[in-house]
Structures are given as C-alpha cells and as structure tokens.
Please model this.
Amino acid sequence: MRLIDGFRQPRAAAALTAELAELGTALGARQVKLMEVCGSHTMAIARHGLKDLLPPNVRLVSGPGCPVCVTDPGYVDAALAIAERGAAVATFGDMLRVPGSRGSLADARADGADVRVFYSPVQVLDWAAADRGRPWVVLAVGFETTAAPLAALALEIRRRGCDNVTLLTATKTVPPALDALVTDPALSIDGFLCPAHVSAIIGARAYLPYAEEHGRACVVAGFEPLDVLDGVRALLTQLLRGEPRVDNRYERVVRWDGNPAAQRAIARVFRTVDAPWRGLGVIPGSGLALADDLSDLDASLRFELPVTPGRVNPACRCGDVLKGVIDPEGCRLFGAPCTPDRPFGPCMVSSEGSCAAAWRYRRSTQ
Ligand code: SF4
Model:
C-alpha cells in the first residue's frame, strides 16, 4: 500500500504530494533545508512518514522544540539533590527518565525518593495541602505553552498560602532560540515550520523578524499530516518566489497576536534571564525565572541550591540533533545501545524527542 493510501484523505494527500514534487522540480539544483521547531510536529512527521513524501532536494530537520530535550543535565542534578533532602518532587512524566550527570529521577524514585508525576501542575496543590509538613517542589520545565499554566500555579500558590510548595524553573521561550539558529551561519536553515502550540500563546506575529530581517520563510501549521504537507508547500512557495514572510495556516488555533491573557500571566509571574540550552549554549533572555516579588517560591533559593551546568554524555549527539546538524540515525549510539528503554540522552526519552520518534516509527514499519 502506498504511504498516502493510509491517510484519512488520500486524494488530498496525493494532490499535495504531486504539488510538492513540482515545487521540488522548480527549485532545480537548489537544496533546501527546512526545520520543524516543535516536538509534536517531529512526532507527526515520523508517525506518518512524511519525509518520504518530500522532493529529494528538500530536507526537513528537527529543531530545539522539545523542552525536556534542551534542558541542561544540571537541572536534573538539582532536582535529585532536592529529592535527597526529603522534599517531594512533582514533575511532568517526560522528565522522569531524562539522564542527569548521575542518574535520573526515575532512578531516584526506585531508590525511595518521593517523585510524583502530574498531568496538570495545580494537582500538586492538593497533594501538598494534605502533606503540609513537607516541602513540595514542582519541576517547571516547558516553553510558553507550559509557562502559562505554571504562571497560574504560582499565583494560586500565593492565593492559597501554600508555603510548602516551590518551583524549580527551567522554563524557556522559543524566539531567542530562533535568534540563535538564524544567526549561526553553519546551520543555513531556509525556513521554519514554526512551533504551533507555542504560537497559540505568542502569536504568529512573533516570527516577523525571522522573515523580514533574516529572510527566512516562516509558516505556522497544524499537526495533521495534511497540515504539515501544506505547511511545507507554503514554505517552498515562499522560497521560490523569494518573498519570505509569516504565513499563518493554522488560524483555527493560532491568532496573529496570540493569547493576550496568557501573555499577561507570563509577564506577571516571570522575568527573563539568560538560560542554557543543550546544543545551543547559553542564550540571552531565553529563560523565565520567577519575578522578584515571587522569589520566595523559587526552589533553588529556598534550598540554597543554584542550578549549575551538568555533565553531558560526550558520546550523545542530542545537541547536534536539536540544531538539525544530524538526523537521529547519524548518532552512532542510535538504537545500539541508545533506545527508549535505555536512553543515553533526552532526545530518546521525551515523547516529543527526535531520537524517540525516529526509533519508534522505524520499529513500527519493520
Ligand atoms: S541516539 Fe541517544 S545518544 Fe544519540 S543523540 Fe539520540 S539520545 Fe543522544
């Protein structure tokens, strides 16, 4: 069966694929590199085998769009140290098995540490209210999409007077990472499939500098396979016309100005700081730390435990995967010995990680 026969709308997929082939032909000898800056896009692309439907001169690479993957191992080390001091540590599930310099939170839990997984950060308030004699620390990892509910959590901690709950922040914003990518001449990315969930918060307008100042094609697209193919078509069309711009093709979710209420909540609760990104180094203004008047909710201050850079496994090439320098299969550890059951780096752990996506869907088609 052809790949597109498995799509819900195979005719539309066939038509889009034919258009992409024509656009590839029109590009001639030009090689085009596009980056999807969203772990959910990475998963959708791998799940539906979309790279196989692109023209041979169009390469789609993954970017730093998985917040767990870009988190420095020193952050995991700090969370482990806090757990060792008897605090309960609450986290989204994706962080559990991410390796720090000396193990993961899952290892610590197996050794008796109290590490809980939440689905919504506010769940932690009920757990902590029933356990007021003990400190509870929420691992605040994510991009703008997660920063909004974390902001709501911080305000709710304050409102309820939950003085045994603090946040260990490694929250980040995406535009400064795009700045780092477009100003790195070695990466030569022609266009971005912009992060759609993040765009719902910051708005499509946020990408104007990458089109207008840096000449990169920018398209906001949804997560259905046809959305992604349509997004690539729109990117190639911009490149062929030589007219880079921001094209919001996900208007059913993303507004030009984003979500002002969420933006206000983030601005109220957080201040921007420089932050380390795996693979990209320290990016100025890319981190979100708690605002000065909420600093008593900062776990690193409460525990007097600053987050310092951790030790990255030197053989793991997550940094290069996150910049689109290599595909996951280009890492010599991919599949042997690094697998989701025995991950050497976060890109093989996270449900949005490029290595996990490549492994999972490679396996399912064999
Ligand atoms: S395959 Fe494993 S070791 Fe290699 S880059 Fe991916 S996560 Fe790191």
In short: Residues 10-27 form the longest helix (18 residues).
